[in-house]
Model the fold of this input.
Amino acid sequence: MSSRESDPRILVTGFEPFDRDTVNPSWEVARALDGWVCEGAEVKAVRLPCVFGRAIEALDGALAEARPALIVALGLAGARAEISPERVAINVDDARIPDNAGRRPVDAPVVAGAPTAYFSTLPIKAIVRDLRAAGVPASVSNSAGTFVCNHVFFALMHRLATRHELASARGGFVHLPCLPEQAARLPGVPSMALATQVEGLRTLLRTAYTVRHDVREEGGQLH
Ligand code: PCA
Done:
């Protein structure tokens, strides 16, 4: 079933492969969800370049076109074993590796003059609760890093906080584990099957779309 122009939409972004890899689960998951209707809202998937600056331009294009009520940006966190909704976006780029255009900013603001940080406006605790209940490993993450994922996350939250046409929209960032085919090339690295990641994202989107007030459950880390 396809939705009408005026129906609410969910924007799900994923990244192209980076760091000389050939696949990125974030885009594989996003594109598997393209066109899926979640609680009456149609999912639109958009692929972002893994390049500082250009990723934000692509995000802006997608926001203008989709006019979404909910935005969930996805990225790969190669060492993680769980689906991890990010709590906080910080206003700094500090690249340990070059992006796909060879850019490597160090200690530069994502948006000059913007606040130091923004919290996700997704119900991250309820998301973790519902993913675990559905049998999908999940934990809150308290750092999205300082590479292109945090860059896009921060730009997204700054737009949600400052643009009146996005005032009622909610959004955030979710890191995903490697796919098994990636882990097979990187012995010892944890992975999660694409089908599990896609099913997890369906659960996550349902929760994000319907839960307005997050639950109060512990989700911290000692370090
Ligand atoms: N992960 C990287 C950038 C693109 C991606 O999928 C990150 O965590 O910053």
